[in-house]
TrEMBL record:
The lineage of its organism: Eukaryota, Fungi, Dikarya, Ascomycota, Saccharomycotina. This is AmmeMemoRadiSam system protein B. Pfam families: Memo. CDD domains: MEMO_like. One of its GO terms (cellular component) is cytoplasm. HAMAP family: MEMO1 (MF_00055). Belongs to the MEMO1 family. Transmembrane segments: none annotated.
Amino acid sequence: MNVRQATHAGSWYSSDPKTLKAQVQTLIHVAQKSGSNGVSGARVLVGPHAGYTYSGERLGEAFNAWDTSTVKRVFLLGPSHHVYFKDKALLSPFDFYETPLGDIPVDRETINDLLKKRFKKKHGQPVFKLMSEEIDEDEHSFEMHAPFIYHQGRKAKHGVPKIVPILISGMDSELQTELVDALYPYIQNDENHFIISSDFCHWGSRFGYTKVLTNKNTTLNTLETDLHSLRFSSAPNDTPVYESIEWLDRMALKIASKGSSAEWKEYIRISGNTICGQKPIAVILQLLEQYRSNDGQDVFNWLGYSQSNPAKSSRDSSVSYASGYVKL
């Protein structure tokens, strides 16, 4: 067996099985108080990937809503934090993902099928390749979800589901469409679930992003006018920085709820919002557009939102976190 080590256990979350199990159970229990318990048909999730001290509550909400009644396989889409690549998506080379709670099997059969996918253009270039073991073990966007997948997946009729980790970096519209086409046959089967790993706005001079929104009710048509680079300790209309960041993120959540991949792309272009999983979210939005054919309902249902720190000036930094699901 080729097992991906839980490289962030003991730092980003506990490496002790009893401690981690208790922490996950507590986070799920807190989420259960909201009433979104095992939402029927919730087989697409989005949640953050920071240390559990920061993002655990949001992960608890997302995985508490997860309907595990049919799941056999989970496609995990996440952004690459340490290496840049383009014209392809990368798949895990491992057979299992280690967690302190138990190992999660990687679906090698599905990965081998995806490796056969070729661009319709670009002279038969592969859409997917295997990432190196080093890239996989350095990356945290999948690992932070893994203990929750294991804990909640044990309840599934088929047991802990197999996972298909898909790492995305540089992505043009052609690659996005190829990824959607490759995944479309799978979303039609309710045994296949999808989890998007993404934090939201990374704000502050440390991240090279200090834009503030001056109008809570801005639209895509007015966004460029209402967005300003911060020079002072508050927005030009005296809005606290952290509140302006939330307005910016809430706009992103609202656009995702509408389900338009074109509007999502336009929002990212104009705002430059540093949502690390913006490309995996774009893929799932286009995939859902194709699957649902615009049935008039909200696509994403959002459960919670928070920030790591209430930023008050450009010297401060914060990362935003959101949790949600799609009911199919």
